[in-house]
Amino acid sequence: MPVGNTSTAEEKETLVITEKPFQLIVWNDEVNTFEWVIETLEAVCGHTHEQAEQCAYIIHFKGKYAVKQGEYDELKPQCDAITERGIGATIEIMVN
């Protein structure tokens, strides 16, 4: 009978693929009003008034905020619509 554990432990790396790998970032500026940002997030992203208001405050105090996550093709038209309204927005790959 063998003594001890003769099997070796293998380390496995797991690649986690997120379902929504991109995020839509809205940037703070000194030009647009809270009301305009809130109205834009409601109209473009489908946020409720409360969600849009919370996002606007985070954008103001943190300098930017990921207001939505999703696939690039889903977020690109929303990003374009936000920037067409004069608000800075970008799409970034989520970092896990």
Distance N to C terminus? 46 Å
The dominant shape is globular
Poorly predicted segments: none
Main sheet summary: 3 strands, antiparallel
By DSSP (H or I, 4+ residues per run), the number of helices equals 3
Describe the overall structure.
There is one protein chain. The protein has helices at residues 34-45, 49-62, 72-84; strands at residues 22-27, 64-70, 89-93. The chain is 41% helix and 19% strand. The longest helix has 14 residues, at 49-62. It is of the alpha+beta class and 96 residues long. The protein starts with 21 loop residues before the first strand and ends with a strand. The chain is built from 3 helices and 3 strands, in the order E-H-H-E-H-E.
